[in-house]
Amino acid sequence: MPTECVVSAADRAVLEQWLRSPTVPQEWGLRARILLATAAGEGVRAMARRLDVSPTTVCLWRERYREEGLAGLRTQPRPGRPRRISPAKERSVVEATLRPPKVATHWSARRLAKEVGLSSATVHRIWQKYGLQPHRVKRFKFSTDPNFDSKLADVIGLYLDPPERALVLCVDEKSQIQALNRTQPILPLRSDLPTRMTHDYERHGTTSLFAALEVTSGKVHGRCFPKHTHMEFIDFLKSIDRRYRRREIHLICDNYGTHKHPAVRAWLAEHPRFQLHFTPTSASWLNLVERWFGLITEQTIRRGSFDTVWKLERAIHRFIANWNEDAKPFRWTASPRSIKAKIRRVAEI
User: Fold this and answer.
1) What angle do CA 50, 56, 59 make, to 5 degrees?
2) Reduced to 3 states, what is the DSSP secondary structure of residue 223?
3) Three-state SS across 120-133?
4) What whole-number distance in Å separates Cα of residue 205 and Cα of residue 150?
5) Are 45 and 192 part of one and the same domain?
6) Mean pLDDT value across residues 171-176
7) Residue 82 maps to a domain
8) Is residue 126 in a domain?
């Protein structure tokens, strides 16, 4: 005759808490249901059918609870193969990783495994443990602009505290976008197979996209031109003038020569409601429209196939129209002080 299993009121409260908690492992929840059903007087076989487990499982956890209480319901550590790599050996692998190899720019797992006398899988596990990724490289560039601090504060001030009743636009051009037509049809996505396209393509001309991103709304005004000289930039400024009437306009742009051409300066002098704010040199990351350029490149241009420039421009304008239907602004959060502190930390490495 099976031994009676009695669940105390205190333990029952803990088991009920396990069932309500979103972080408790599922196996603990099953064990809690078995013990709570036991406390309610449910039979072993009926409980096993309802919980979709075997009667042996029900009896196992009832017996474990009788012998050890709630501690017996928790998953116990299981014995495994003893550790073969000592902490000293791990440190030697880390130190070797940080030293460049003699005839290569960085280590591969197999090359370092041969050097330290371990398997490549062991080296890879140590790299994962210490967050080492020798195959990856991140690039950076310091701005040498003598007016970096003042330009940084000016641009970020427009993001964080824009002038009242004024419009702030991030302006730039994505020049010479190629209309590339793949020589073979693009093979669509399939189960276990990514989209596939041939490396071979035919060029059918280029276009340049001029875009103005509204900082507050995220909407984009864009136009395509066959060239990207100061004349096209002035035409784009005229389109902004027609689109946004009777408002003070602040344009954030980079130091590209067309933005500072004498003809552009003359046009701006005739339109005093336009004010240009230049990002520091080598700091295009300050211009939010660059982030939007990344989106249109990734989602429309890079994997597209266009046999005419007209079709490329149509795809670009379709993306802009779709974007503006549900536009969301890019929120700038970094202050000038935090950016300069980060630059100092990187420079000290």
Assistant:
1) 85
2) strand
3) HHHHHHHHHHHCCC
4) 40
5) no
6) 94
7) no
8) yes
